[in-house]
Every structure is written in C-alpha cells, then in structure tokens.
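step 3/5: co-fold with magnesium ion
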Amino acid sequence: MSERRLPGIDVTPLSGVGTVVWYRPDADLSEPPAPEDVDAEAEREAFELAVAEAEAELEAERERTAERVGEDEAAVFDAHVQFLNDPQIASGVEERITDGLPAAHAVRETFDEFVEQFSGMEGKMAERADDLRDVRDRLLRLLTDGERVDLASLPEGSVVLAERLTPSDTAQLDPERVAGFATVTGGRTSHAAIFARSLAIPAVVGVGEDLESVADGETVVVDGRSGDVVLDPDEATVEAARGGAADDVVEEAVTTADGTDVEVAANVGTPQELAPAAERGADGVGLFRTEFLFIERDDAPDEDEQYAAYRDAIETFPDGRVVVRTLDVGGDKPVPYLDLPEEENPFLGERGIRRSLGPDSDLFETQLRALLRADADTDVGSLAVMLPLVTTVEEVEAARGVLEGVVADLAAEGVDATMPEFGVMIETPAAALMADVLVEHVDFFSIGTNDLAQYVMAAERGNDAVAELGDFRQPAVLRAIDATTTAAEGTDVWVGMCGEMAGDPRLTELLVGLGLRELSMSALTVPDVKARVSETTLEDAEALAERALAAADRDEIIELLEQS
Ligand code: PEP
Ligand code: MG
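step 4/5: write tokens
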C-alpha cells in the first residue's frame, strides 16, 4: 500500500515515527437528574473541593513545567489559576447549582458560555478559550472521578493524536518517550505549538477532521518539516523520520558553498536559554528579548539583576556577538506594574522605543547602565545594543544621546565603558522606507519580520483569520526586506534578521540572496539553517531572490521556493 499524507500546519522542524495513541480526555456527561433530586448544598461543597484540588494540581504542574520547559511557558498555569478563582465564573456555577444542576453540569455550562465568548474574539484572546477548556476539563475530571489519561508515562515511541492538546497536556509529554503529536485543531502560535518547540517534539497541528480516520495502534510519521501526518509510510519516509531529529550540530561558523560568511545566531528571552543555544551551535545571540526579564513579576529587575543576565549572555558566547534589544513592551507585551495605557490599537500605540524615550526613560537608562557595565567587565567587546520599533531618525538620535550620556556617566564613576555597536530593528514600514537615511546613523539593521509583516500587510500577527496575508512570503514583505538590504549595500552597516522568518530553513537560500548576512532564530533550527547556508551558493541564492522579487503574488513565490 502506498503512503497517504494528511496535510496540517508544521510546528517544529523535526520528524518522528511511532505508534498512534489517541488521547481523548473524558469530559462527557450523562443527562442531569431532575432539579428536585439534586442536593444543592452537597454540590456546592463538591465544587469548592474540586477548585481547591485543581489549584493544588496546577501549582504542582506549574513547578514541573518551569523546571522542564521554562518559566515563560509555566506562566500559563497562573492564567489557569486566575480562571479557577474568577468571581464571574464562580458565581455562574453557583447560580446554576442553585437552579438545580449538579456541580459538573453547572461547570460545563458556565465554562462553555465563556469559551464561546473568547472563541469569538481575535488573536491572543481566542487562545484564552483553550485555557478555559483546560480548566473546565480539569474540574470535570475531579467532579466525576474521571481517570486522568497519563500522558507522562505513555509507551516509548507513541505518537499522540488528539482533537486538541491543552498547555497542561503538552507540558506532560516526555520528549524521550513521545515520537510526536498531531492535533485536529490548533495554529502555529497555539500553546501546544509553543510547548512542542520548547520541548523539541515533532508536531503537526490543524490537520482537521481527517485525522479522526487514523486508528490506535497504526504506525505513522509526524513530518514536522512538511507539516504532514503520513499514514502507511514508505520505508524511505520512516528512515528519514528516524534520522530527522538527529540533525548534526555545527559548532563552527558557516559560509555559503562559495565562501560568503553568514552568521547563524539564536534568539533568547532568558539566561536559561543561553547554554542550550550554544549547544545547538549558535554563533552568538542575534536577539535578546529583554522584556522577558521584566514580565511575570511585581516590579522591574534592578540594575544589578540585569547586569548579571547580560554578563551571562556575553560570557556564554565569548567568540560571538550578543545583540541585546532594549525593553520592548506595549503592543501584545503587557507588563502590569508599568501602568501601560489602555489603547484602542496597542500595536500602533506607545510601544518599544516610544516608551523608552517617554514614560519609561528611567528604566531605559538603568538598562543601558547594566548593559555597558556588563560589557566593560567582560572585556569581550561583543555587545550590540538594538532599539525596537524604530520609525524615525529622531528616535535613533535621541536614543544615541541617552546611550552616550550613560557612557559618560559610567566613565565618570570609573567604569571603563565604551560605546557598543548600535543598531535598530527594521520592523515598521517607516524604517524600511527610510533605511537609506537610517543607515547613516547606525552600525547594523536587524529585520523583525514578525512585526514588519503585520505592519506592511495590515494583518495582525497571531490572528489566524489573516495568517495568509501576514505570511512572510508575500511580495510586499520581500520588497521591504530588499529595501533594507539595498540601503546598506556598499556601506559598513551589516544587515541581519531576527524575526521568525529567519528560522525557516526553507527560506534560507532566499534570505541569503536578499543580502542577509546574519540570521537569528529559535535555537532549535540553528543546525538546519547552518546546513542550508553551507549548501547554497551566493550566485544561486541571488538568482532566486531576483526571481522572487519579480513575483506578483505569494503563490508564485511559494512555487519558486518549492522548485529551488
Ligand atoms: C519581530 O517583530 O520580528 C521581532 C523579532 O520582535 P518581537 O517578535 O519580539 O516583536
Ligand atoms: Mg517586534
């Protein structure tokens, strides 16, 4: 029998082969009894007990996830505890119990009402619906004595198939035992996808109802590169999947086959991610998202705490460059203690450099002091400071003024501080259009395609409904990248890319051809991208870029990429 492919959305560039285990959390309830047969007091107590037990479970899972996956990912369990203790949800459940429903049915109805509300919203809010379902199913299991399917101790070589996987489900998966997972629903930015990347588990999401046709016990391949679930896989597909996860780490810097240097660096958010990035062969850090040092806490980290984090980064990569982006809050990155304004369009409001030169100017100075001290004390000289969300030359010059002021202050205090490399993110159409002017004011550009694509295409990042429009392979996005690299041609300014686009190995040749000489990405794809750089020649890459820039639409670009 020849193999059959069920297409879905690729989530991790890894493949795995294994035996199907369907995961169906049992949340079905029978018809409720008549109201007069329900003991409301007993049901109320049962609900309170279930909430207390659920909270204890969540605490334990939070701790486990923080240890195995990371603090940022563990934060999702805080949101679950909030839902668990939400007064509106609690009173919804209690009212229904008073009206004669058993606790389990009251939980189901109340949560489903909120799930429906959140599902109707856009972007991040829609993702909260998954969190609500997760909390609902946890409570239902506790209220109905349901057996919990133990995802943590599945037989080795299992491929988990499910309608959807919640964050708690995914966090339980043991990458040593699970060969991969695939889900009926879900998108690239769903929690299950994010966890899969952090845990390096082959995964495909959003396969649709066809996935239901696959039976327990079948052998399948989860091809995280093509985004397919492969049924009755051929020998060659199985072999490729077996070898797929073991991509060779390349420790040394790479060049194209004809000798052009291309730096392949890692994006990190916390010091914990530094060592794993070095182990995957990253040449340095192309984007340190420092806002992760500021979130999920009650106040800002002080100068010394930041100093330790930045010093750690510089010391982890003694031979590579470390690009630290100054605080980028606002937009979709809220920080409660910073008192961010309520805005109709937060992506177009006070975010990134706008806040650092405005209400957060003290934080900005503290951050620059910590950075320059770490740079001076490590004496490696590899620090590069990068500004987020730049739109005008004035912003760049104002920020440079602050930076020079901090260098002078530190020098007066006896610290051997010097001006670091100084650059900007190109992540707004304004910056791409002004790149030929900005180039006179900086040492480097790093293209942030996550924001650049959303602003160029007027398609909100993370909003599945406009995902095709916001795709990096849109000709308008390629033209904005080209405007940036062309502006820097013949100057000493280097151009890198740190948006998600840089981490897709299928786009490496195109990006090299467009003139990118540094690519920074999640550590997971560093080996793959290094391999792709070494395989291509500059000549082929430039020819591909030229054809892609002449394309009229996204389909044409996709076709070109498939042929290359
Ligand atoms: C980007 O916008 O591409 C980027 C790298 O920044 P962030 O994803 O942190 O907004
Ligand atoms: Mg950005």
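step 5/5: annotate
The chain has a mean pLDDT of 90.
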